[in-house]
Design brief:
Order of helices and strands: HHHHEEHHH
Low-confidence stretches: 1-17, 107-111
Mean pLDDT: 76
Strand content: 5-15%
Keywords: Membrane, Transmembrane, Transmembrane helix
Radius of gyration: 25 Å
Structural class: mainly alpha
Number of domains: 1
């Protein structure tokens, strides 16, 4: 049997079975969460080629970026919800002079301000948003997506402007 045909048959079988066409490269990419933005351009070409050829890894990369976007969206919605809660609670406190809610723990009154709880939730949500933005390759990924969707003349104008500044 022709060796080239045998490799082609193995690749097509792997693609149909939903497995990676090159398990070694696939394992490396999986360890990096399919993010190749931080490696040198010389090393990146092999991984980009693999992602282009391997439907399994391309699907896994797309799933990883979708999860990143969803995490960022959920934390953004959380920030907006806590911000809205803080504003609403502030308005209610002004209107009804409600200063705090009393919670009794071991017969000790602990006053917890609802506004302070909303602000604490806002701070925690903002910290989580920053962590997600820093820990994921999302900024580079979104930059690439935006650059692909820009018209070529606008892209060229931006690159000329960047070269002139350097």
């Amino acid at each position: 049997m022709n060796p080239d045909r045998q490799i082609s048959n193995e690749s097509s079988r792997a693609a149909r079975a939903g497995s990676c066409t090159d398990p070694v490269v696939g394992a490396i990419l999986a360890g990096w969460r399919y993010d190749i933005s931080s490696i040198s351009p010389e090393m990146r070409t092999d991984y980009e080629q693999h992602l282009f050829e391997c439907a399994h890894c391309k699907h896994r990369q797309r799933a990883a970026r979708t999860i990143d976007v969803l995490l960022l969206m959920v934390s953004t919605l959380s920030i907006l919800a806590f911000l809205l809660a803080a504003v609403v609670i502030r308005r209610i406190e002004i209107l009804t002079h409600i200063d705090s809610v009393h919670v009794h723990l071991r017969q000790t009154a602990v006053a917890i301000s609802l506004e302070a709880a909303a602000i604490a939730g806002l701070v925690v949500s903002t910290a989580l948003w920053i962590l997600v933005a820093v820990a994921t390759p999302l900024p580079g990924y979104l930059t690439g997506v935006v650059q692909q969707r820009l018209p070529s003349d606008l892209r060229q104008r931006f690159s000329r402007h960047a070269q002139n500044r350097a």
